[in-house]
Design a protein that fits this description.
single chain; Arc Repressor Mutant, subunit A; 3 domains; 9 helices; 58% helix
Length: 247
């Protein structure tokens, strides 16, 4: 019996990767052999990696791996691994490892792929809010809600929160600065120079970190009232301090 074996692109596999006279590898990885060293007849399906449409280059392959990861996380609402993405794409795990060395690296890439869209939605939500406290309260409420609505974003932020240093890392602070710089708030007019703005971002990250670790059962409106009572005074303190210094 002649058995054809194919690689991820549907091409003939190299000679050394083909089965010998005693075993046949099916697409599911199972082997069929009889007791005399012969092979029982079994149909072997042709494997078509990448849906029969191989990537044009490494950049295209990487984008498609990330897109598959995002789709799987959105579908399952749970962390995914290299094997899950490989199966989704119809390729072997080593193909995915070529672009991402670990599941954590792939999860991070999936989250980062969603960041621009998140920032655009957040900016639209707080558009027109020029009071710092009001804008930040709405920003926090929206972000925490987006974590529930966007599984891949929530997974990466929740994972960062569990790692107490990650959410307040320099990279996270830079992201926070990018976020609030897109608000319609004249921070300088409200007494915020660069240093105090960075400290404000750190305070916001630490506040959100606590909610990632223990969300509680408040509705958005209850959370909004809570933040207006406890977060807003801290945001307004900078302006009040500057007024006191002037007097």
């Amino acid at each position: 019996m002649i058995v054809a074996v194919y690689d991820d692109n549907g091409k003939d596999a190299p000679e050394q990767d083909r089965p010998d006279s005693r075993r046949v590898a099916s697409t599911s990885g199972r082997t069929v052999a009889d007791g005399s060293g012969g092979v029982r007849k079994r149909a072997v399906a042709k494997r078509r990696g990448w849906g029969g449409n191989p990537p044009v280059d490494d950049a295209d392959a990487s984008r498609r791996v990330v897109a598959a990861a995002v789709a799987l996380i959105a579908e399952t609402g749970a962390p995914i691994g290299i094997a899950d993405v490989a199966e989704s794409l119809g390729v072997i795990r080593q193909t995915v490892y070529r672009y991402f060395p670990s599941s954590d690296a792939l999860m991070t890439a999936a989250a980062l792929a969603s960041v621009d869209g998140f920032l655009d939605r957040l900016t639209g939500h707080v558009h027109g809010l020029r009071d710092p406290a009001q804008a930040l309260v709405e920003g926090v409420v929206y972000t925490l809600g987006e974590v529930r609505r966007t599984p891949h974003l929530g997974l990466i932020l929740s994972d960062s929160a569990a790692n107490t240093g990650a959410l307040t890392s320099e990279q996270s602070k830079a992201f926070g600065m990018t976020m609030i710089r897109r608000f319609d708030v004249d921070w300088e007019r409200h007494g915020y120079e660069e240093q105090s703005l960075q400290e404000l971002v750190e305070h916001l990250l630490r506040t959100m970190q606590s909610f990632f670790l223990s969300p509680g059962d408040r509705t958005d409106e209850e959370l909004r009232r809570y933040l207006h009572r406890w977060l807003a005074p801290a945001v307004n303190a900078q302006h009040l301090q500057n007024d006191a210094d002037v007097r």
